[in-house]
Amino acid sequence: MIVNGFDEVVPPGQEGQITLSLNAIKYTGLVGKEMEFTTNDPQRPRFTLALRLFIIVPGPHPGRRFGPFVFSPSPRWVTRLVRGSAAQTSITIYNDGPQPVRIIKLTAGGEVFSLQLDALQEGRLYQLTVKSAPSLPLGRYVQAVKLATESGEVPELELKLEATVVPPILATPEALSFDHVPISSANDDVSRMTKLVSIQHARRARFEIKQVSATLPFLKLEVAAENSGETYLLKVGIDKEKLTKGDYKGIIKIETNNPEVPVLEIPVTLTAQ
What mean pLDDT do residues 206-229 have? Predict the structure, then answer.
């Protein structure tokens, strides 16, 4: 979405105009776009304009076909969201067969996702709005949704919804593995085996890392802040002088000032030869 023009000055008590446009060629189904504006009004220094529209593509519809029905973009939706937030999407169900075929019943299959089925054109075009519950604990959730139809060919349609709820602070990767660390020769160089871990706030908020430690004494840890404290980079190296041959398992502990995630733990495995 782009701004084509706007009135830079709006007199008190008067109206102004903002013109927005969207290249609809790239979209199909329900589309939502938002744009934020800044003003010099102390009572409302910022405001957001939202554009909601439903785009119908002429000709064959993109998506997954089941008999006369086409799911666009797909009969499967997978989302990843931060604990305490909700995710939403819309799935369009087209019937492009020669005769109208109604969807007559929706079976939710669970309470993780709330569902609303709207007939935009009875027997031809339906829209299923899906929203995850905002109070989900950490974990992975799956819900199977069934739609009963009047079609003799496909009397029942099924959709699969999946959500993974994660904490607001994430470490990537979630685990480290140092395979075949060479220490037999004095010339073996382990400095090139250093690994990096990105630690970031999923909502792009600032936080602090108070301390990092490891249960394996030969690991060298170094933390650097990036993006004004929204992201940290943890460098994990190996002190060859403290390492002997063997297989090791340990934990890197990252302590933060975030009350929701006071401690992050990263498993570490290492094989020294």
Answer: 92
Do 108 and 177 fall into the same domain?
no
Tokens of 65: 């076909």
Please indicate, yes or no, whether residues 155 and 174 belong to a single structural domain of this protein: no
Q: What is the CA radius of gyration of the chain?
A: 27
> Which positions ≥6 away from 98 have C-beta within 8 Å?
none
Specify the DSSP element, H or E, that contains 157. strand 156-166
Give yes or no for a contact between 32 and 51, defined as CB atoms under 8 angstroms apart: yes
At residue 265, does pLDDT exceed 70? yes
Distances 143 to 158, 196, 264 between C-alpha atoms, Å: 10, 36, 29
Domain that holds residue 122: 64-166
Q: What is the largest CA-CA distance in the chain?
A: 81
Predicted TM-score (pTM) of the model is: 0.62
Digit-coded pLDDT (tens) for 14-36: 888 888 887 776 666 667 777 77
Among 235, 160, 224, 165, which residue's Cα sits nearest to residue 194? 235
